[in-house]
Amino acid sequence: MAQPADLPDEETAHRVAMDVLRQHAPDLLEAHKVHWIAPHDESITVMENGKPKKLVLTGMKVKMRATTPDKLWFWVIVGPNEQVMVFERDIYWVTLPGHRRTEKWLHDNWLSEHPEVVSRLREAADS
Question: What is the superkingdom listed in this entry's lineage (predicted)?
Answer without folding.
Answer: Bacteria
